[in-house]
Hints:
With 419 residues, the chain is mainly beta. The protein is built from six helices and 36 strands. The mean pLDDT is 85.
Amino acid sequence: MDKARKQQFIIKVCCVIAAFALWLFITSTENPMTTYKVKSVPVQLLNTDKVTKSNLALIPNQDLTISLNIKGANTSILLNTKADDFKVVADLSAYALKSGEQNIPIEIRKSPDNINVVNSDSLFIKINLDNLKQSKLPITVNISGKAAEGFFASMPKLSQDFATVVGGSRFVDIVKNIVIEENIQGVESDVAKTFKIKPVNEAGEEVKDVYVNPAQVDVKIPVSKTKALGVNVKTIGTLNSNFTLTSTKVIPEKFNVIGSNAALSSVKSLNTENIDLSKIVKDTTMNVNVLIPNGLTLAGGNAKAQVQFKLAKAEKSNTTEVIQKNVGNLSEKTISQNIKYINLDKKYGAKLDNEKISLVVSGTKEVIDSLDLTKINSELDLSNLVEGSYTVPVKVSLPQGVNLVSETLDKVSVTITKN
């Protein structure tokens, strides 16, 4: 009995082993049809120009992929099938397109051998369309940094001043500016480049869902050498004899100008337009034009300055009027005196249009306190002049240690006649 049971057990085990071996044989050689899903198969859109012709735009960043259910007899082939093994297209030319979401049928034009795509005739790709919009905007150049010391960057020159933003209306509407950005820190010569135009929203963030036509423009940023020049206050007329000019201040004290090396080296300072002293009878601040010589250009801003005149009651000493003030460790003294002429032939006489001049001189307090006014002279040199009218420069002579801050006249009209 035990022997019979043992034989039956051995037979059962052999049957199981035989069944398993048969299964292995069938799956390796006579494999039945199985299914498998291939994900993220890209769909190529054909005839996309139909979208533009329909006055529409594809909304960007859409997921234009599908999943395919495939069937085949060889499991190993199915498992090794990739999305790149398929060519799937959607032809937009055959359909009436409209704004919003649409389902477009797809066509499988290439697939691996020995497999079938399940339900290939009923597959669709979902696309989203928006109304096409264009907006023409000015191009703004945003310059950061500063040119090297002693140089100035002028306004950029663009090959064109406007560009057009194109795309879906929802994205075009949020574009507020189209900009070019350039850092000119430390440059000493012209910047000439081709720049990409960037569309930005109100916060200055780039809007990437539109395109700009043209996509780039040529820009030149002229960079010129500069020079800082002080300002001379030019006056006409004579100050009321009851007053003396205590100080003249110009704001700003200097202006930066640009030009060629020759033009910059030929000028030492700038002049204001003429100011009539005869009309000033109290402390006055005036807005005046600063004259920019030919060949030079103001480096930014406008050629306007404020000139502040401060007056005081005159203290008369013969033909010289004097007032003094201290400025830190220095002292300034304002002197109003008669203009003299010298070296005129004795057979002629001279008449001056302006006979008085106001000078502001400075020096250390010790020098100014002990200043000998007789050593300060304002003279016209009339040597070799004959009968007629002339404009003669005023020559101011000062003692050592005394500096001329300003003068109300630098030239005087003179009429010479025979005695």
